[in-house]
Design brief:
The protein is mainly alpha-helical. Helix content is about 55%, strand content about 5%. It folds into two domains: about 200 residues, Rossmann fold (3-Layer(aba) Sandwich); about 90 residues, Tyrosyl-Transfer RNA Synthetase (Orthogonal Bundle), CATH 1.10.240. The structure holds tryptophan. The site of tryptophan has 14 residues, from strand 1 and helix 7.
Amino acid sequence: MEKTIFSGIQPSGIITLGNYIGAVRNWSRISEQGKGIFSVVDLHAITVRQDPKELRERILSTLAMVIASGVDPEKNLIFIQSHVSAHCELSWILNCYTMFGELSRMTQFKDKAQRYADNINAGLFTYPVLMAADILLYDTDLVPVGVDQKQHLELARDIATRMNGIFPKLFKVPEGYIPSVGAKVMSLTQPEKKMSKSDPNPKSYISIIDEPDQIMKKCRSAVTDSENRIAYEEGRPGMNNLLTIYSAMTGETIEAAVARFEGQGYGAFKTAVAEAIIAGLSPLQQEYRRLMADPGYLRSVYTRSAEEAGAIAAKTLARVHEQIGFVGR
Ligand code: TRP
């Protein structure tokens, strides 16, 4: 039996190098192992305030970035979450089997509640339940995500297991797929922190559509240390991060990279890291520009995908309705 792979991405308009290495890039790789269903999660996005015009643009540019990152729309489904209404419908049902206490323990909720203290809405709180619905609707086997989503994935598994205890075999319990290499790319300016597009300092992150000279500047000004030795060592987050990025972009192991740069200065090393990023992203950037110039094609991808995804989701939802005791339509 072919495996079903599901993942979602926020339409934030910027995919950082961290998102790319830690998550999106793996979608195309892992989707070779089965059927990939990928969603641009606009419903999740509105848990924080969005400008409507920008949101619409970002949904489309994120979709284009996903395709440009190598997810083949001929073999996988790439749809917009709000186009498949079953996500909201199942989410409500799962809400009734998720505990207030469980959601209160979600670290992302706690972080976001702090960051958006003037808008701690119910959607922000139940966000992980919607994510569980996304996953469970497709009888998903594998969920490729970055490490930051591990807790949400565990919750999805808990909800599925709990409901299976009441309604036998209702859901398939999904497995997470968290990459080992480059799972966590750190900020270029504060390498103890994760690379994040919400960082107010744009030098701290690289967007996958940054121009080559921007990438070069950002790498050259990346925070390192004064050890003057290129090596992967405990307590050297800046150096370790650049080595991780280099290794992720070139496919070379960290050990091989360390050997390659032995005796060289930080300047030469940082330039090489930038060049590796520029070379690695260049085909993606060309494809992205081509896609953004062809909205008709993008539309054909997301419409067709939503139709197919909708058909699968509707079946799961009908099964859930049946088992929990609703009257069939
Ligand atoms: N919450 C995820 C993030 O912020 C995005 C997401 C939504 C997702 N639904 C999902 C990821 C389902 C995996 C599976 O990155």
